[in-house]
Request: fold
Amino acid sequence: DSGVTQTPKHLITATGQRVTLRCSPRSGDLSVYWYQQSLDQGLQFLIQYYNGEERAKGNILERFSAQQFPDLHSELNLSSLELGDSALYFCASSQDGGETQYFGPGTRLLVL
Amino acid sequence: GNSVTQMEGPVTLSEEAFLTINCTYTATGYPSLFWYVQYPGEGLQLLLKATKADDKGSNKGFEATYRKETTSFHLEKGSVQVSDSAVYFCALSDWGFGNEKLTFGTGTRLTIIP
Reply:
């Protein structure tokens, strides 16, 4: 158990819908990262937050957004969903100044 | 930009065989290198890491040495077990240069047969 929690574990929805994925980092970790794992793109970095502020952006679509709240949990919002958004979405966290990222169990999203 | 190239899978070995999974990288700075493992139906677990040249990371019988001259971080294990069956990902981060994201290889699926 990494100490990073993600909910829900599975999500099935339809095209055009909007979903929210939630992540709670390890106790004391200030950085939260979101990654997408798909069969065709592999593991891709989406976005990083550090203590409530966006720190880095990767291959994140404009339809996707994220935020980190004062209690440090983070949410990834996916809107206008398309079939191609079906993937496993991972959250990871690291300490302030820490380089090792610890991953949650992931949320498996299926868009029908 | 940064990139990681991993040995194509799948790899199938018999129990107690020697394992090598090749990993090479391209990075602009002085990256830290990682191996993560993903067991069926689970998330990513950190297996081992190395933060500078010639460092050796090790865990659960797995080892990898950071080779700057060959830009490689090959994963090895002397005697694999059925329980090692999983997907292995090589990754890097240029953390020291403010680029903290992990860049992953494509993953290598390993199957160990009894």
In short: Chain A has a mean pLDDT of 94. The interface with chain B takes residues 2, 31, 33, 35, 42-43, 45, 48, 55-56, 58, 90, 92, 94, 99-106 of chain A (CB under 8 Å).
